[in-house]
Amino acid sequence: MGEGREAVPLTDFQAEVAGLLASHRTEESHLAGGAALHLEPNSTRYSNDLDYFHDSEERVAEAFSADTRLLEDQGYSVHTEMNQAGYVRAVVSRDGEATKVEWAHDSAWRFMPTVADPRVGYQLHPVDLAVNKVLTLAGREEPRDFLDIVHIHDTILPLGALCWAGAGKDPGFTPRSLLELLRRRGKYRPEDFARLRLVAPVDVQALKVKWLGMLDQAEAFIASRPADELGCLYYSRSQGRFVEPATGPLPNDIAPHHGRPGGVLPRALEER
Questions:
Q1: Residue 214 domain boundaries
Q2: CB burial class (10 A; 0-12, 13-18, 19+) of residue 29?
Q3: What DSSP string describes 130-195?
Q4: Other C-beta atoms lying within 10 Å of the C-beta of residue 240
Q5: Are 114 and 148 contained in the same domain?
Q6: What distances in angstroms separate CA 118 from CA 22, 41, 206, 223, one per listed residue?
């Protein structure tokens, strides 16, 4: 990593590009995906690209055009690999270095508003990044998504709470159907992780033991919650963060938190 900037799991070049594009980011055009999830120093891997999400297909086209002009004005080359309604993928390069950048349309429905960050402008809130990643892993078999979920379970929210909330983000799922899809994941060999840029080597056997424990814990949590709370997150007023509550009635300190278009702050935060 280069000297003179915070050590985060972006390459120097990715951080340079993200810093330049930060001035164009808004609540409706924000960093998401792996780059946002792994922006902090406690991350387990480096992101392959920069993903920018937008609340409409029109906004995707506008952001791509504006970002391209800014990049080219600063001496970068932008090679478009795919350009279709609601999705653009390009390779941004300069002086022998390159990174993939994607501009995509994503639903404006989320649990929390996007977050301002001086390094990247705006980014998706960590809980929304986490819920999105659970839905992603349920739909595809990718070692990087699997590692991300293990990291999320340890640092953001446990798997059960995310499956529970995922049914709110995508009502086509139930928490149990999401969990059943996730049970099909986790069958990886060491070489499956070899192509990833990791902060530390993966112990496949230890990872499998941890994954099975996460699944069992998630199943127990899902069985413990009543149907009328389906699709929510749980916010602890005393801890000032989202939590996975223990079995039984919710204590007065913890309240269900439901999403909506644009996201919404927990009532406890709005009242401050």
A1: 127-270
A2: buried
A3: HHHHHHHHHH---HHHHHHHHHHHHHT--HHHHHHHHHHH-TT--HHHHHHHHTT-----HHHHHT
A4: 11
A5: no
A6: 8, 16, 37, 41
Torsion of CA 76, 79, 82, 83, to 10 degrees: 60
Helix (H, G, I), strand (E, B) or coil at 91: strand
Token duo for residue 264: 């919404």
Q: How many domains does the chain have?
A: 2
1 falls within a domain: no
Tokens of 184: 């099909």
Count the Cβ atoms, other than its own, within 10 Å of residue 197. 11
The token duo for 207 is: 């990872």
CA 188 to CA 207: how far, in whole Å? 10
Give 210-269 pLDDT, tens digit per residue.
999 999 999 999 999 999 999 999 999 999 999 999 988 899 999 999 999 999 999 765
Domain assignment present for 94: yes
Residue where a domain terminates, one of 124, 139, 158: 124
Q: What is the CATH number of the domain that holds 33?
A: 3.30.460
**pLDDT recorded at residue 11:** 85
Query: What is each CA distance from 256 to 98, 122, 163, 236, in whole angstroms?
Result: 43, 26, 15, 9
Residue 4 lies in a domain: no
